[in-house]
Amino acid sequence: MASESAHAKPIKGGGFLIEDLAPEEIFTAEEINEEQRMFARTAEEFLRKEVLTREEEIHAKNYATHRELMTKAGELGLLSIDIPEKYGGLGLSKISSAVVGEQFALQSSFAGTQSAHVNIGTLPIVFFGTEEQKKKYLPHLATGEMIGAYALTEPHSGSDALAAKTKAVLSPDGRHYILNGQKMWITNGGFADLFTVFAKVDGERFTAFLVERGPGLVSGHEEKKLGIDGSSTTALMLEDCRVPVENVLGEIGRGHKIAFNVLNIGRLKLGARSVGTIKLALGQSVQYAKERHQFGQPIANFGLIKHKLAEMMIRAYVGEAVLYRTLGMIDSALDRVDKDDPREVLQVLEQYAIECSMIKVWESEALAHVVDEEVQVFGGYGYSKDYPAERNYRDARIARIYEGTNEINRIVIASQLLRRARAGELPLLDAADQIFHEDLPSSDTLKLNLTNALFADELRLTAAAKGMTLAAIGGISRAYGEQVRDEQEMLGLIAEMTMDVYAMESALLRTQKIMATRGGEASAAQTDITRVFAREAALRVEKAARTVAAELADGEDDLESVIDEMSHRAPIRMIAAHRRIADAVIEAGRYNL
After folding, report:
1. Which of 86, 117, 299, 487 is 20 to 30 A (C-alpha) from 409?
2. Residue 309 and residue 34: Cα distance in Å, rounded?
3. In a domain, 46, yes or no
4. Closest to 161 measured CA to CA, from 252, 260, 253
5. What is each CA distance from 307 to 6, 371, 534, 539, 550, in whole angstroms?
6. pLDDT of residue 346
7. What is the dihedral of CA 263, 268, 269, 273, to 10 degrees?
8. What is the CATH number of the domain that holds 433?
């Protein structure tokens, strides 16, 4: 199949901090093709006709219903997008997978079942399985005949996954590994057939195993959860569980490579579902605001409600920009390697660990804001189980915890940037030195084409945000060296700045691309969103940079003066812009960009 993102420019993970891209060099949601949209429509129709009509059974944890629906999803190809054609799948792109994943936001509990199966339940075999393992399991996972799950977390090792206690010992005849231990929070744990289980061979070498349900593997009781309460979440007990040696996944002692890189893709897919839920919650909020009357008029007419709807719309648009830019980069990189070679696939997945973690954190926190505001728009009815806001609010909360907590992912973002900078993989420290020790380029020297001229201030704000982020990275690296790993607050600030820079640039590039194609009048809402978000994000970046500067004030670097020199002010009528954004979504009745 031809590349679906062939025009996406090859770029190193994290390279956006030092490299400026043109709009045509990134993938945007507007370029989703008709085949991909067809899959999205198929998924939406399946959710509305087959899944939503059986919500009562789903929330009752009726496993027969879950399995039946998964089989139907398999028949429609909704479980096999990421599985190569030679093993019974469709072999499509991550973009195709994401547009389908967005639709599953319509039923969060069943989305948990499907997502755990197609992502962390199936992808370990797709990326790291032997030919025999792929032939044995992937065709059955593609159809839903076999349900997959992923067993990494333990009662005393959540974020610290490598502290796992589950042990694997080779049997005397050398034909099996005997697994003993306990896993926790296993999605699909109550009825899955195949588990990717992580254990330490002889208590030392962290390794992945493909474990079929059978003797020695027992599911615990269903957890009583705050949200997504229709999905199965259980503990998993392994008691002298015999696993054939041919079911070792990957290399012995290299299980961490599988665990963390599959989680990277899981984080990306979680971002897609978060975007879908943001759009869903926005649409519900708009419809309610138009129908609910107070003081003789719809509450959608009131300024403070409009502000909420506008901020929700901004997060939906920017969330899409960030998500599909990243998907385009990853698909483009995967198109350039041998997908049957796990080493090459591994290199691609590791390359974009920073972006995957940013997607997970940014999208889940945008979602948290949106569902909280949805409850507020609904008022008292938002607190009622008879209205959708209450369930959206509860179901969304887990997104900031699983696939690695947002705190862990912030540390991943910052520590990966610093590690790559020190290793010379990214010249971030050189760029930071230039900011400290050379004359800064004047913003007036920016080369602006006709499209860019309309966004001159946004380009300057983005350039300044990049400069401040690089300066902070350089200052922190010099101040703490290898000990920076103990400075979690500083790492968190680097992560915040980096995410805002990536989101600012992604929104700006997307809007420039739309404007070049459609013209200014047809992209008025996108322009307002980009201008508002750029200013909000730039202020956050500057605030974070000044916080870093204050902590480093006793050092030799005068970070504060560098920030002063780079700081750019470009006020616009923010209230008027928010009103225009809100009016656009109110008129449409839903997210329609």
Report:
1. 117
2. 29
3. yes
4. 260
5. 38, 15, 17, 19, 33
6. 79
7. 130
8. 1.20.140.10
